[in-house]
Amino acid sequence: MTAYPLADPGLVDALGAALRAADFSSDGIDGLLGEQAGAALVGGTWWPALRATRRAPVQKQALATLIRLFLLGSTEPEADVAAAFGGLAVDDLVDGGVLARDDHGVRALLDIRPHGSDDADYLVVADQDASMRSGAVAHDHVLGIGGASMSLAQAVIRTPAARALDLGTGCGVQALHMNGHCGEIVATDTNPRALALAAATARLNQMNWDLRDGSLFEPVAGQTFDLIVSNPPFVVGTGAQDYIYRDSGIVGDGVSRHLIENARTHLNPGGIAQILANWVVYDEENWDERIRTWVDASGLDAWGVQRELADPITYVSLWVSDAGESPVEAARRGADWLDWFEREGIVGVGMGSVTLRRPVEDRPADVVIEEITAAGQEVTGFEAQAWFNRRDFLRATSDADLLAARLRTAPVFLESQSLPGDDGWQQVSASVTRPGGPGAVLGVDEVLTALIAGCRGEVPLGALITLLADFHGVDADALAEAAMPSVREAIGRGILFVVE
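Above: the chain sequence. Below: its structure as tokens.
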């Protein structure tokens, strides 16, 4: 067996051909499993998928065997495996680190699975996670497609970029998604095994990435990019590097800090960096203190979003269970980890994303750091790009220009909260929400509610404010001055927009 799996390009090509011949694709697997068994497998319940593969028709037996090998982690008779791969010899796959023999048959050593996007279906090569094998994962374990990688892929702005960097590529999920809109892709990692599997992922999908070994920005010293994407080993800990995929070897939240503070050096003017990050919280009331300091030091425009604030036990439990260690080892590691949190005075860990942009012009950075935890309000690439566009518009547009403009309301909901009182229900608060918009919520009073409802793109904003002022018997200029901060906030949140 070679030092790392799939080191032979010819074997990778033959593997890809065999998988495609068996229809080992998202559509092929969905068709064989059916909607319910497929959904159960995505949710972590494997046995309905096993049942479905056992009932597969003769012409789908090759696909059924591949599903059991790579997606269910089962051991299969060698004759069935040989048949599933057609003309590709089992010996070659064993020598290439894809399969292994044991007393019961043949099993997969790698996690190879289709990964569909809006416009393509890919094959991704990674290591099998703890749920598909016995014992703890290896020190150089290469993580497959997970919640964090998909969250980042969803959040990346997909405008064309000449040159992009995937920092901490792992098995290459981000590079896969960038390939469709980026000319040149540099992908780095400190784990040689990850680079080997990323190379296999790239070749299986007929892509060509510049893969480089090294830590943080070292492999691209002196180079700049239009897009930087990073799902780094951001786990907050003592600095020990038990598992490369999660532990940076840097104490605390140092890896997130380094990436944010140093991104500017490697961005072209107008360039974007999108980073998943964790940060230490010493005071829940000031959860944003550390990340705001880093962003301010970067000198970049920024939209930082905390999706979750995890307490120490929740945070440590998440990562201890992720590695598949024995209960005794997990308990020991978890206790040591919590002791460290206690000594450091850490009350929680912020978990989220930071989208950075290097301004084209010389001006102060535009920074917003906020908490958005609601389901359905995840950051998407479309929303991130629109967020920057709206901030640019507001910075370039005076209040006088806005008063002369015709505004229109996006599709929104008006929600109110009331409490029962002596005279019936008494409204205590109200807000306008744009569904699907991260943080697109604006508190409103009676006047602002009427103003937003009146924005139909037909008359200038100033005229609407004058009508409202007359109705309420107040000075129009005073009402305009009071309303403009809320109008700007509504535009910034995509609740209102200017009709061209």
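Residues 327-344 form the longest helix (18 residues).
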